[in-house]
Amino acid sequence: MKRLDVTAIQRGCVYDGTGVRTTVFLKGCPFSCPWCCNPETLYTSPSFFIDNKKCIKEKGWDSPLCKKCIRKGGFEPLEHCPFGVSEATSHPLSVEELTVYLLRDKSVYQLSGGGVTFSGGDPIIHISELFPLLEKLKEEQIHCTIETTLYCKDSAILLESVSYINEWIVDLKFQKENYREDYDDVMTFNLRLLRNLGVNISFRLVFVESMEADEIVERLKKLGVLSLEVLKCHALAESKYTKLGLPFRHYVPSTKSYLDFITALLMAGVDVKELAL
């Protein structure tokens, strides 16, 4: 039975598409943004949060349950810690399990005009695996949204997904730290495909200090993007990086540079919606 690697399911979301939604976060992403607020989704390989506050040895205590632990010279990995030092960042769920869970709020979706959103990471890398679930949600007349970088080199599978996905939130990777030589070409090609099919598309951008407004405006106009959601980069996920054993670097911009950036976009005729988390 095929299962999807889910890091979290959040109910009652209002920022991930129209209406009230349930957002499913999947592991894996074609990018590795160093400010990602969901670092546990960056890679498809198994990963674990390590909470040293729960470690008996770190507290200076002793327990017979710890004798075999790798931290005590044994061979048991931290994933087997009986005190919960290690916690898997994701859980494999079947299409059937996810369907049952996501349909819990069907009445809420219908009343609010909401539905289910797939995020991550970037669910575009799992799109073929998502088809059975998307098919079931379509049968239940559930509105589906995907938040994606639109960096997908398989245009055929992208076109196939259009019949299941009602709304596309495109996370633009315009930061210099995310430079990828073929990104603009791949994303622009896919965007053209979706627009030709009349797909509902909105755009989102995380602002970091290194971004220059003139350059961003030029790229937005080249893409024909006249409306944009902007999120000021934050450091709310710092504790996650610590628990994952990953380095954390601050990319939080100054208030002035952020407001100057927003002003520049507005002056250039771009309709900006500021996202606040």
Keywords summarizing the entry:
9-stranded mixed β-sheet; 22% strand; alpha/beta; two-stranded antiparallel ribbon; 277 residues; 8 helices; 2 domains; TIM Barrel; 11 strands
Task: Set out the fold topology.
Blueprint: E1 3-13, E2 21-26, E3 48-50, E4 86-88, E5 91-94, H1 95-102, H2 106-112, E6 115-119, H3 127-139, E7 143-148, H4 155-161, E8 167-171, H5 183-196, E9 200-207, H6 213-223, E10 227-232, H7 238-244, H8 255-267, E11 271-275
Parallel strand pairs: 2-6, 6-7, 7-8, 8-9, 9-10, 10-11
Antiparallel strand pairs: 1-2, 1-5, 3-4
Domain Radical SAM core: 15-271
Keywords: 4Fe-4S, Iron, Iron-sulfur, Metal-binding, Oxidoreductase, S-adenosyl-L-methionine
Cofactor: [4Fe-4S] cluster
Task: Walk me through this protein's architecture.
With 277 residues, the protein is an alpha/beta fold. It has two domains: 2-44 and 88-271, Aldolase class I (TIM Barrel); 47-85, no CATH class. 29% of the residues lie in helices and 22% in strands. It has eight helices and eleven strands. The protein has helices at residues 95-102, 106-112, 127-139, 155-161, 183-196, 213-223, 238-244, 255-267, and strands at residues 3-13, 21-26, 48-50, 86-88, 91-94, 115-119, 143-148, 167-171, 200-207, 227-232, 271-275. It has a nine-stranded mixed β-sheet. Strand 8 (167-171), helix 5 (183-196) and strand 9 form a beta-alpha-beta unit. The longest helix has 14 residues, at 183-196.
